Amino acid sequence: MVNSEKQPEKKGKPQYSPKLLQNYFQMIWRVSAITVSTMAILGGVGYLLDKAIGKFPLFMAIGLMIAFPLSQFIVYRVFTKFSKKISQSSKK
After folding, report:
1. Angle of helix 18-53 versus helix 56-91 axis, rounded to 10
2. Radius of gyration of the chain measured on its C-alpha atoms
3. Arithmetic mean of pLDDT, 19-31
4. How far from chain centre, in Å, is Cα 66?
5. Has residue 78 been placed in a domain?
6. Phi first, then psi: what are they for 55, rounded to 5°?
7. Phi/psi of residue 14, nearest 5 degrees
8. Tens-place pLDDT, residues 30-61
9. Is 48 a member of any domain?
10. Residue 43 lies in domain
């Protein structure tokens, strides 16, 4: 005879493992660092070009406009590698 009663589902706050939270924080720091550093490098190069040539906001603005999509592409590439690494470690 099979017991047809179902176990009651536990409701409340979801439980997160420390490893999962550590992975999320690593991901947040990586995304932030990549975005800020890419924009700082290309914006800085644009600023130096503006200072040397004498057309102040032109090259810095161009550098920042190029930096943001480039940083998002880099984030995408890093995130896909990072998520594959996490999914492989969770299967073990």
Report:
1. 160
2. 23
3. 86
4. 18
5. yes
6. -115, 80
7. -70, 145
8. 899 999 999 999 999 999 999 999 988 899 99
9. yes
10. 38-87
Q: Name the token pair of 42.
A: 């290309």
Answer whether residue 62 is part of any domain.
yes
Alpha-carbon span 59 to 2, nearest angstrom:
74
**CB burial class (10 A; 0-12, 13-18, 19+) of residue 13?**
exposed
More confident position, 64 or 90: 64
DSSP codes joined into one string, the chain: ----PPPPPP-SSPP--HHHHHHHHHHHHHHHHHHHHHHHHHHHHHHHHHHHHT-HHHHHHHHHHHHHHHHHHHHHHHHHHHHHHHHHHHH-
Residue 16 covered by a domain? no
CB 76 within 8 A of CB 84: no
**Total structural domains within the chain:** 1
